[in-house]
């Protein structure tokens, strides 16, 4: 016979276990992203020395650049696949290399690497270093909210530009969705000096 006095204790214990599981799942994505950046940083250092290597055994993506903004730096992976985005910002296949003519597109998750994207303002600088060691600096011109179901980015032609893309709303607890937040930036001379614009972004 079940001793009913133990039922509340059992229910409370089950709720505690479920809560810990949900907490672990919620923490896993940012923890995984940070651990991946350590491995990616090592692979990136080897790439810059001319000894390109995968960030970990069996990786089907490679480090192609280092992206810096808002006092943060991230290694950028190739391909733009969901697997690559789980570990780092990713350069979308089919778009030009950063610094080349056309619109280069780099995507990242809003809850990890691109969580601070909404705090960047027009006039601020995004820096990018490619695998060949060349550095390119871009000035942010505008931010847009776009619907991925209907809007398309024209990557070909025109001067060198950069687009940083993440999901919108930036603080939504629900993953996915059709809306995207896109920051556009134009290539500027490499001698351009870093400066800070403290005005709040007009798109927030």
What does it look like?
With 204 residues, this protein is α+β, with helices and mostly antiparallel strands. It has one domain: Sortase (Sortase, Chain: A, Beta Barrel). The protein is built from two helices and eight strands; from the N terminus they run αββαββββββ. The chain has helices at residues 7-48, 82-85; strands at residues 63-69, 72-79, 90-92, 103-107, 125-130, 135-147, 161-167, 179-188. Strands 1-2-3-4-7-8-6-5 form an eight-stranded mixed barrel. Helix 2 (82-85) links the parallel strand 2 (72-79) and strand 3. The relative contact order is 0.13.
Offer a few descriptive terms:
globular, alpha+beta, disordered C terminus, 8-stranded mixed β-barrel, 204 residues, Sortase, Chain: A
Give a brief rundown of this model.
With 204 residues, this protein is α+β, with helices and mostly antiparallel strands.
What is the overall silhouette? globular
CATH superfamily: Sortase
Total count of strands: 8
Portion in helices: 10-25%
The H-and-E topology, N to C, reads as HEEHEEEEEE
User: What is the arithmetic mean of pLDDT?
Assistant: 80
Question: Which structural class matches the secondary elements?
Answer: alpha+beta
Q: Which range does the strand content fall in?
A: 25-35%
CATH topology: Sortase, Chain: A
């Amino acid at each position: 016979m079940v001793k009913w006095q133990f039922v509340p204790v059992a229910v409370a214990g089950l709720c505690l276990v479920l809560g810990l599981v949900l907490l672990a799942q919620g923490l896993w994505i940012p923890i995984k992203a940070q651990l991946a950046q350590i491995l990616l940083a090592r692979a990136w250092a080897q790439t810059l020395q001319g000894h390109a290597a995968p960030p970990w055994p069996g990786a089907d993506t490679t480090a192609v650049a280092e992206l810096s903004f808002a006092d943060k730096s991230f290694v950028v992976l190739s391909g733009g696949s969901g697997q690559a985005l789980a570990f780092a910002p990713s350069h979308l296949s089919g778009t030009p290399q950063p610094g080349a003519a056309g619109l280069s597109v780099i995507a990242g998750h809003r809850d990890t690497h691109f969580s601070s994207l909404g705090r960047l303002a027009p006039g601020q600088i995004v820096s990018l270093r490619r695998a060949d060691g060349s550095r390119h600096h871009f000035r942010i011109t505008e931010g847009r909210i776009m619907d991925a179901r209907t809007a398309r980015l024209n990557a070909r032609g025109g001067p060198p530009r950069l687009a940083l893309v993440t999901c919108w709303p930036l603080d939504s607890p629900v993953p996915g969705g059709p809306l995207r937040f896109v920051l556009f930036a134009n290539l500027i001379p490499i001698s351009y000096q870093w400066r800070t614009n403290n005005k709040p972004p007009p798109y927030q």
